[in-house]
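Thread: quick sanity check before group meeting

JM: Hey all, I'm pulling together slides for Thursday and realized we never actually wrote out the predicted structure for the chain we discussed last week. Dropping the sequence here so it's in one place. If anyone has concerns about the input, flag it before I start.
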Amino acid sequence: MGTVFAVALAFGLVLGVAFFILGSIISPGYAKFNLNLVDGEKADVGDLFKYFKYWKNVVLANLLRSVYIFLWSLLCFIPGIIATYTYAMVPYIMAENPELTAREACDKSKEMMDGNRLRLFCLTFSFIGWAILCAFTCGIGNIVLTAYIEAAIADFYREISTFTGASNRLELIDEIGTNVAYKDFAHSPSKLRATVNAVRERYPEKQLVAAMELHTFSSLMADFLPQYEGCMAQADVALVYFNPKVIEHKRLTPITAEEVRKAFGTENVEVFTDSQLLQERLRSLTYENTALLMMTSGTFDGVNIPEFAKELISSNKDKDNSKKDQSQIPYTHCLNCGAELQGKYCHVCGQEATSKTPTVGAFLVEYANHAFIWDSNFLKTIWNLIRRPGYLTKEFIAGKFASHEHPLKLNMFLLFVLITLFVFFAGTEKVNNKVHNITNNEAVLDGLQLEFMIDRGELDTTLLSPQDTVLLLAPLFFANQYPGFIRCIDTLEYTNDKGLDKWIAVIPHTFIEDSIMVEYESGCYRINQELKTAQNELMLVNSIAQELVDLIARYFPLLVLFTAPFLAISLRFVQRKNRLPRIHHFIFALHYTAFLEVLMLCIFLLHLTLSPPMDWMQWIMIIGSCLYLTIAFRNVYGTSTWTKAMLKALFTSVVYVLIGLGVFLGILIVAFFVAINNALIS
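JM (edit): ok, ran it. Output follows.
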């Protein structure tokens, strides 16, 4: 029976995978069929099967789309719906661009649906009436309805993809003087030719400078290149870029720049394999009455296209001015954005041209000057801090100060949020309540008072006779904790240490004579709650405990930041062979502590919303911090192996914890004496 079940399960899995692959291959064909109907072109059933040669790309795209939708659906029903509409355009994008990778297709769908998800939802929801009517046809009407809906979605896709303002679809970057700049993700031969011709028709009197990147799988294939013949013939200056490393990565047959130039078939085409050389060529052109067109599905290997294009079309640039003040500047191009410097400050991003490695004093002064100024880089900084361990440190060390928030500024803001939520909203109040509940709990109050009296020598075992048998209302553990005073004979009501128990006990007669034990109306004896000596002492201890907890909780988050310099010291010791400047270690420590603050904030919010077990949150903190530190170590310090990076990160963590414990102990001692003083004064 088990064998039959296993065979059936395996057969079902194989059949499911086969149907998924077949459906994935047909989906762009069906999308193309509907697009032809929308465009008024011939729609043929053969369209369904024309993408089999691109089966790997379309299957991976559909798989990645399904994974995204599934993962978002795990969070909740609503995020799953949003993800469904976010990646709804993947089949249509693959129908027109089958050479795209899965990631590129999903990213394009996400870009296109930005601001259009609700529109598509309303469109599909408008068919709800027809869907209800189709239910009475035993599902036969759904065949026609589904075809109608798909045609409507195809028309919707065509509308948003041809809209002038759609992201990356002939999107206007800027217009400065007589110059204009556009970007487009055209990369296939048909889209490239159509885009270049469209800009030429729009600006027939302007010089057309067109730059495109061969980036996708098919565009880098030697047998596909001839399809680009004449695509950029309308451009006055035609620049083509490709990265040989991408070809190597995709395991394609290598191509040369000369082969690409011949494939385009026009004399005005220049081919580049180095992004820096391409940028220098674009900068060397004269931009007067010029239309600049940047076309790529990538970024020309890290180029910020909007900023770079704005730099190029800036009219009336006096290039002679670019040399002023250069005698005091150690480089000619901005370290942050790469723009050519025209003075002490970059005219594109605003970063000051200064030394790549600032002094500690200059580092602190920069923070003081910008401590209360926030810009759009903040969210990007937070995202890069979480997503890319060590990236911010490398960027800062490389001289890119303006692209991200200052590390000290980032830490101070996160500490402010953490302290606000942790202390003022829920921190000390909850902890203090726990202390208060313990010291005033009925189940332990009697024992605490009795222990105070014993410790003060107010009870002498030599004088504790004769003994009386009474009905006692107190925690049963008294009998085990104070056998010299109390002995249990019989248990009448046992609450398993969660409250007061009722039991027959033997106690010294002097307990009753001295009013240590008093009889209540129920006939049970209890510890006298009015005992002044013990009660006063208990109140003093409770007050000191509350003050101590309040002080520690209030200032504990600051320890994370204040121990950053000590973390930098431990990093310098671990990386003593590298001989890096102290400021580099300090910046690394600040970014790491910033991540710890984000992690603590997330754990605290998780505690407030879901209240998972404390052990889980502790392990999240430990594993998250160690993993982050290991990755950051390898990325920043270039550790040769992951094992070495892990060992160094572990050693650094141990040193950091020891330093933190020492600082915490010092604060604890100070807080203890302050708490005693405050308690005595009050």
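AS: nice. The first strand starts at residue 171 and ends at 176. Confidence is low (pLDDT under 50) at residues 163-168, 316-327, 426-439.
JM: adding both to the slides.
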